[in-house]
């Protein structure tokens, strides 16, 4: 091997050693950086009372094969009577939404014998007590010969967005408290936050253990629990 070739090999070998040292040093630095962080999960929970109710219901009429016009007249009278009953109890017309009439075939022993006409309506109000009284005691309205095919109450909260922001702040503070507690046990000190990730909100009936990766919004309970988690990563000084 000539002197020139030996010199070239020496340069290549030296450069390889330098690159290897840099790669190892970078890996060592990154591993130390990762080791100097702590990941904690903060939680915040609150209980609240709904202030809006949506009452969904349907009224129906059964008719024969040739009684379609009569059926439409009857269900229209039912709807007018229902609206009148609501107005008598102080509800405003703008609170009431009426859907178009649907017709479904009715069978007996495999043969069609007529139709069932169904009309849906929903009422949105902040007077939850009054709506519950009507929904849970339909006799006050069905005395007008109105037949309910379906009836359901859904409960909502008008200040939910503000509550969510407050809970996120509380969960973040809880995460910081947890990090400080862990660090104090090892003699370390928590530094700046590196990253934060918010979990989904779980809105359930009280004392429920139900959890979903996509979040939950229970509308069937007037009183609700809301929970959220925040995952924070802090540096350790």
Topology:
Layout: H1 3-35, E1 37-49, E2 52-64, H2 68-88, E3 96-108, E4 111-125, H3 128-136, H4 139-142, E5 148-156, H5 160-186, E6 190-198, E7 202-204, E8 216-217, E9 223-236
Parallel strand pairs: 7-8
Antiparallel strand pairs: 1-9, 2-4, 2-5, 3-4, 6-9, 7-9
Could you describe the 3D structure shown?
40% of the residues lie in helices and 38% in strands. The radius of gyration is 33 Å and the shape is elongated. The protein has five helices and nine strands, in the order H-E-E-H-E-E-H-H-E-H-E-E-E-E. Strands 1, 6, 7, 8 and 9 form a five-stranded mixed beta sheet that branches. A four-stranded antiparallel beta sheet has the order 3-4-2-5. It is α+β, with helices and mostly antiparallel strands and 237 residues long.
Overview features:
3 domains; 5-stranded mixed beta sheet; 9 strands; 4-stranded antiparallel beta sheet; 5 helices; 38% strand; Translation Initiation Factor IF3; Alpha-Beta Plaits; 237 residues; alpha+beta
Query: What is the class of the largest domain in the CATH system?
Result: Alpha Beta
Q: Please identify the structural class as seen in this structure.
A: alpha+beta
- Looking at the structure, what is the overall shape? elongated
Please tell me how large the radius of gyration is: 33 Å
The CATH architecture assignment of the largest domain turns out to be 2-Layer Sandwich
Largest sheet: 5 strands, mixed
- Total number of domains: 3
Unreliable residue runs: none
Could you estimate the helical fraction of the residues in percent? 25-40%
Strand content: 35-45%
CATH superfamily descriptor of the largest domain: Protein of unknown function (DUF541), domain 2
Topology order in helix (H) and strand (E) letters: HEEHEEHHEHEEEE
Number of strands: 9
**Termini, distance in Å?**
55 Å
CATH topology of the largest domain: Alpha-Beta Plaits
Number of helix segments? 5
């Amino acid at each position: 091997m000539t002197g020139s070739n030996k010199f070239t090999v020496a340069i290549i070998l030296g450069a390889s050693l330098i690159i290897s040292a840099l790669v190892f040093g970078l890996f060592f630095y990154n591993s130390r950086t990762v080791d100097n962080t702590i990941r904690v999960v903060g939680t915040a929970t609150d209980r609240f009372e709904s202030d809006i109710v949506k009452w969904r219901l349907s009224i129906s009429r059964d008719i024969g094969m040739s009684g379609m016009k009569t059926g439409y007249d009857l269900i229209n009278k039912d709807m007018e009577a229902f609206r009148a009953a609501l107005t008598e109890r102080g509800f405003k017309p703008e609170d009431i939404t009426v859907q178009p009439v649907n017709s479904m075939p009715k069978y007996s022993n495999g043969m069609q014998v007529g139709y069932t006409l169904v009309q849906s309506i929903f009422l949105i109000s902040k007077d939850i007590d009054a709506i519950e009284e009507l929904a849970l005691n339909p006799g006050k309205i069905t005395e007008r010969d109105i037949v309910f095919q379906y009836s359901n109450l859904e409960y909502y909260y008008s200040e939910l967005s503000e509550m969510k922001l407050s809970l996120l702040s509380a969960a973040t503070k809880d995460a910081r408290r947890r990090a400080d507690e862990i660090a104090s046990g090892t003699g370390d000190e928590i530094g700046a936050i590196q990253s934060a990730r918010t979990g989904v909100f779980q809105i359930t009936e009280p004392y429920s253990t139900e959890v979903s990766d996509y979040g939950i919004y229970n509308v069937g309970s007037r009183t609700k629990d809301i929970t959220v988690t925040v995952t924070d990563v802090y540096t350790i000084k």
